[in-house]
Amino acid sequence: MAAPSTTPDRSRRGLRPSLSVWQAVGISVALMAPSMAANINPQGTAGLVGQATPLAFFLAAVAVLLIAYVFVRLCQYYRHAGSVYVFAGATLGPRAGAVAGLGLMGTYVFYGLVTASAAGIFGAAFLDSIGVWNDQPWWAGFLVGAVALALALWLTIVPARRATSILLSAEGITVLLIVVIAVVVLVRLLAGTAPDGSSFTMDVFKVPAGVDSSTLFLGIIFGLLSFAGFEAAATLGEEAHNPRRDIPRAILGTAIFGGVYFTFVTAVETMAFSTGKGMDAFVSSPALMGDLGSSYIGAWVGDLITLGASVSAFACCLACVVGASRLLFALVRDLSPGHSVASTGRNDTPAAAALVITGLVALIALVSATAFSAKPFDTFLWSGTIGTLILLVAYVLATIGCIKLIWVDKKMPVPTWQVVIPALGLVMLGYTLYRNVFPYPTSGPAQWFPVVAFGWLALVTIVMLLSPGLARRLAAGMADLDDRAKEDVQTVDGTG
């Protein structure tokens, strides 16, 4: 194993290598939140491409696999808690690294509010449905979400092994429930015994008349949002037992799982609604699998799905806090090694960084509610859009860094033809950003989404350009990354 650091007192600042590949998978799957996404995200695509929603999700899965290739290659070379901060910084320079790292951290902060809001919405709805808390005030979702955020902070500070085990268990149970319901629905569709006259059809994988390629690609955007977070295991590069093997496996495995899962579940949902109640009912459904569970199995299934969606949202919130705290820890460790945020607590986790992250999430929620009269669903929608715009920029920088590392600097022995893979990913990311911003919204809250997202990135960029001292300190923190990466590669190659 390569030397972890050249600075003193590593026992207070290092991260302990204690995670298996399955625990790394837990972070990525939880942050992707497949249970929550399957109940909410397809409606956005359906509003644009109608019955072709599963086709859009399938194409989104292809795009995500292109991006996953980038993270797999970078994780095979670097092992670090900084994820894209290091991937961009070590390949494109410390300023690019700061923009990418703080950008991804910003995404995780906004996604932390997205998922805390979702946990509050679903959790409050579940309490109302079982009669525990009826006649709820408008702030009920915020209260339940605050409890979820506080619990996420506590589970971040305890050993990561325990936290990631909880992530896997919670999300696994919820996903299993959704898959079981989807299979039941599919069987009844095939047997011709589905309610509302619903039937099996492969038309969900055809482009409907009147939908052009640009509109279909815009629909793919919502599919890409469903996969956001699949790369979260990259922040555990210093905590996995075998990071150069386990982290790439976790990222690629999560991307493949997400592609199969979202394509299958979305196809079943679309078939059941489009041939029965219609796509208007699909778009307006508060919980797609909850509605189908109630219709195809029993009313009690709707309550289980609501509870499962709340658990999924909480698990995702926990993954956001875990990922963001490690990014902040890695960045501050390079800028100011003696700072309290650059230290680990008695559980060998970045406790101070986790406190800062949860504080930011709570602050954004407070400002949204008091200054903009936001409801829990508003904070869910607004933060999700802002976070995704930032995330796409971080993906772009990581992809450019991957191309430079392998095919310009030639630091990894990879066949030349494979440059096509990240190049296609770069095209997909660029067009996705374009379609998210243009035509530019000129009214309502949406007009502020690009301002906040790109304003944050611009602020980081300006600070880095005007503060050469910060850039030098970041560069010093990355000075030996290539040497350590080469030693790791030689060690692995030498042992077969």
Q: Any overview of this molecule?
A:
By secondary structure, this protein is mainly alpha-helical. It has one domain (10-434): Up-down Bundle (Amino acid/polyamine transporter I), CATH 1.20.1740.10. It has helices spanning 10-13, 21-32, 34-40, 42-49, 53-77, 84-92, 94-129, 140-157, 160-191, 213-227, 243-274, 279-284, 288-296, 299-335, 351-371, 376-408, 420-437, 449-466, 468-477, 481-494. α9 (160-191) packs across α13. Residues 1-13 and 492-496 have low confidence and may be disordered.
CATH architecture: Up-down Bundle
Helix content percent band: over 70%
End-to-end separation in angstroms reads 15 Å
- Categorize the overall geometry: globular
Number of E strands: 0
Class by SSE composition: mainly alpha
Q: Report the sheet-strand fraction.
A: under 5%
